[in-house]
Amino acid sequence: MSFNLENIISIRDFSKNDVEYILKKAEKMEPIARSEKVCHEKDGKLLGVMFYEPSTRTRLSFETAMKRLGGDVIGFGQKQGTSVQKGEVLYDTAQIIAQYTDALVIRHDMEGAARFIADNVDVPVINAGDGAGQHPSQTLLDLYTIKRTRGNLNNLKIALVGDLKYGRTVHSLVYALAMFNIEMIFIAPEELQMPSEIINDLTKMNCKFTQKSTLLDNLDDIDVLYMTRIQKERFPDPKEYLKVKGQYTLKKSNIEGTDIILMHPLPRVDEIDFDVDSLDNAMYFKQAFYGVPVRMAILDSVIKK
Amino acid sequence: MSFNLENIISIRDFSKNDVEYILKKAEKMEPIARSEKVCHEKDGKLLGVMFYEPSTRTRLSFETAMKRLGGDVIGFGQKQGTSVQKGEVLYDTAQIIAQYTDALVIRHDMEGAARFIADNVDVPVINAGDGAGQHPSQTLLDLYTIKRTRGNLNNLKIALVGDLKYGRTVHSLVYALAMFNIEMIFIAPEELQMPSEIINDLTKMNCKFTQKSTLLDNLDDIDVLYMTRIQKERFPDPKEYLKVKGQYTLKKSNIEGTDIILMHPLPRVDEIDFDVDSLDNAMYFKQAFYGVPVRMAILDSVIKK
Amino acid sequence: MSFNLENIISIRDFSKNDVEYILKKAEKMEPIARSEKVCHEKDGKLLGVMFYEPSTRTRLSFETAMKRLGGDVIGFGQKQGTSVQKGEVLYDTAQIIAQYTDALVIRHDMEGAARFIADNVDVPVINAGDGAGQHPSQTLLDLYTIKRTRGNLNNLKIALVGDLKYGRTVHSLVYALAMFNIEMIFIAPEELQMPSEIINDLTKMNCKFTQKSTLLDNLDDIDVLYMTRIQKERFPDPKEYLKVKGQYTLKKSNIEGTDIILMHPLPRVDEIDFDVDSLDNAMYFKQAFYGVPVRMAILDSVIKK
C-alpha cells in the first residue's frame, strides 16, 4: 500500500487507496495522539501554518499533530501582527514561509488559494479550507470517525443535515462517501439544499441518495446523523431563519436509545441541545479528537524524512 | 509527602501539606527554570492554554514552565482568531482542547469557569484567574517568594496594600497566609478594603490581622510589603481616585535601608516608583521569575506520566 | 576567530571580524536550516520574542532559527492579548520575559528601545528593528546573500533603490557595505534620498558612492540591485507619489539576461513585477531563506551554553 499525493488540496485528488492508506495510518497514530507513546519521528521538522480565517479545531489539531510527531510549528492564526497588514499578498507570504518550513497548512477565504500556492512552492501544501471550496483533512477525519465507531465503512446510510448549500464540510464529504458506496440522505430547507452540480456528479457516479426537508421522520434506519450549523447570515429575512432553525435542532429524545452515531464538524451554535452531549450517540467531541491521528497520518505522509 | 489534587482551582482546596509539597518541588525545579539543567520529563506532553483575558506573566510563565519541562504548548492568548468569534461557548472549546492535550490552563472573566470545566473534561485543569475569583498559582508563587527570600514562613508580618476589594490576587493570598499563621495588615482606602466575608473567614480562623487606611506609618515592623495596583475605573469620581492615588504610591525613601521585602503581582502602573527597582528590597521581578519553578511544580504534579 | 558582542543592537557595534564570524558560522548552519540535518544544540533553551510592531519574516525567521537549533520560543507578535493593554511599560515587560528566557528579540517603534533594554536585563538582547533606527540581523542576512551568491564581497558595486530616507534597512546596510569597501549608488527621488548625516559618515570613511534620481540608466555595471518599498504615506501629495512610483518599478525586461542580483528586504508592494520572480536574478525569496542560517548563527553566538 502506498500514498502518492504530494499535496493535500481536495478529497477529489484521492484514490480510494489513498484514503484507505491515511485511515490505516491514523489508527497506528492513535496511541501517540492519546499521549500513551512518545514519538520523535519529525524531530527538527517545522510545519508552517497560515490561517487567514479564524479557526480553533483545525489549526490547533494540526499543531497538536505536528508536535505529537516530535516536530514543531511556526506561522500565524490570524492576519493581524503579520505583513499582510502591510499589503503583502498571499503568494509572497507563502513563498517566505515555505523557505522556513517543511510543509504548509493554509486556510484562506479565496477558493483555489491552496492549489495556487501548492503550484508555486517547493514544500507540500495542505488545504485547511479555501472559502466555499475544499477541506480534505476534515473529510478524512469524518470518514475515520465513522470507520472507528462502526468498525468499517460498508452498508451504511448517512443523513447530512443543515446548510448543505454553503457548507464546505459536506461538499467534500459526499465525494468521499460516494467512493465507499455509502447511501446518503440530504436533509435541508429548500433554500439550503445540496448544489445541483454536486447532485449531478453523484448521479453520474450512480450513488444512492435522497433529498428531504424535514429532520425527524424515519431516523430509525439511519446509521450516521451528520449535523451542520445553519448560519443566520444566509437568510435575507431573519424570520425565515427562525422558522427553519427549530426544525433543524436536535433534542435528546430524538436519538436516545437508538444506535445512530451523531456527528458535527463543530462549532455548533444551537443545533444540538447540550443535554445530548451525555448520550453515547454523541460522537462530535471524539470526532474532534480523531482529527489529531488523521492529521498526524497526513503530515507523516507528505513531509519528507 | 504526597500531592492529591487533580485540578488546581482554588487555594482553598489545598491542605497545608499540598502547599508545602508544591513549594518543596519548586525548589528542585529552579536549576531547570534557570536553564542550568535540561529536563525531558514532559517530552511528548502538551499543555492547552485558553486565555480569554489578556495576560503576559501568567500565560508566558506557564508556557515557559511547560517548555522547560521538555513539553510543548498549544492554545490561544486571546479570543481573536478562534471559534469563539463564531459563537462557540467555553464548554465546547474546552472539550475540544482537552481532547488534544494533557492538561488545560484557563483564564476566563466568569467566576467559577475553571471549576465548571474541570468537572466536565478528562484532563487536569489549572485556574489561571476566573474574574474576581481565584488565581491559585499566583498565590503559590507569592508564598514561594516569601519562603525563598526569608528562608521560612514562620513569625512573619505582611502588609497587603492597594485594591483589597477587587484584587483577586490578595483574596487568594490571605487564605494561604492564614494557613501559615502569618500576621496581616490590610492597608487600603475605605472604599477598597478587604470584603467583609473574607474578614469574617479570617476571624473564624483566629488569624491575626489589622486594617489601616494609611500606607506609611509603622512600616518598620513589617517583613513583607505586598503592593497591588489601584485601578482608576473602580472610582465613580476621578477626583476620588487622584486623592487616593498619591497615598498609595511607594517611593525609594520609604523602604531604603530597611529589611522589608517589597512584592507586587505586576503589572504595576505607577504605584511603585521606578527608582525603587534598584533596591535590594525590590523583589517583584524575582517574584515573576519564581512563577516559573512554581508552575513547573504544579504541571509536574498534575500531568500524568 | 572569535565573537565578542553580548548584544546585537546595531551593525555599527560590529567589527569587520565580528561580521565575518557570523557569515562564516551561517554557512555551517545552512544544512540544518534546510532540514537536512537535525540539531539539538539549544535543547532546553528559550528565546523570548517581543514584537510591538507587525512582522512576518523577522519574527518567524527568528522562531524558525531557534527551533531548528533545537530550542523553543515564547513571547508575543503583537501588543494585543498582553499586559501592554493594561498599561505596562516596555521596561517592565522586558524585565519579566528576560526572567523566563535565555535571550530576547525586540522590535519596537521607539528608536533606542533595544539598547535601553539591553542595558537593563541579564540576558542577551537582539534588536529586530527600533523605529527608524537599526535592524542588524537584516543587514547581516543581506551581506550573507551577496556573499553566498557572488562567492565573496570583493570589488562589488551595489545600487540601493527606493526610500533611502526613512528605510532603516538601507541605513544599517550602508555601514556594513562601507566596511567591505563596496561601491554604492543611491537611487531615489530627491525627497527620499539618503540622509545627509549618513552621507557625511560615508564621506569621512572614504567610501565610493554616487547619488542618482533615475533607476534605469547604466544598470549594466551594477552587481547588486537592492530595491526597497516606497511608502505612499511618505508623500504629502498622492500625485507626487504616483509620479515617482512608476520610475521605481522594476520590470522583467530591465534585468533579464544580465548578471545583476536583485534583492529586496520584503514585503514588496508593487515595486517589482511578479513576472520578475521567475528570473535567476531574483534573489529576494532566497534572501529571506538566508535569514534563517544567519539568525541561527546570531542566536548560537549570543546564547550561553
What do these coordinates show?
The structure is a homotrimer of 305-residue chains. Chain A is of the alpha/beta class and 305 residues long. Chain A folds into two domains: 11-134 and 291-302, Rossmann fold; 137-288, 3-Layer(aba) Sandwich (Rossmann fold). Chain A is built from ten helices and nine strands. The first copy, chain A, has helices at 16-33, 57-68, 90-100, 113-118, 136-150, 168-179, 196-204, 238-245, 252-255, 284-302, and strands spanning 46-51, 72-76, 103-108, 125-130, 157-161, 183-187, 209-212, 224-227, 261-263. A five-stranded parallel beta sheet of chain A has the order 7-6-5-8-9, with helices on one face. A four-stranded parallel beta sheet of chain A has the order 2-1-3-4, sandwiched between helices. In chain A, helix 1 (16-33) crosses helix 5, helix 2 crosses helix 10 and helix 5 crosses helix 10. Chain A is globular and about 55 Å long. Chains in contact: A-B, A-C, B-C. The A-B interface holds A 32, 35, 37-39, 51, 54-57, 60-61, 63-64, 67-68, 70, 72, 77-78, 80, 266-269, 274, 285-286, 288-289, 292 and B 43-46, 72, 74-76, 80-88, 91-93, 95-97, 99-102.
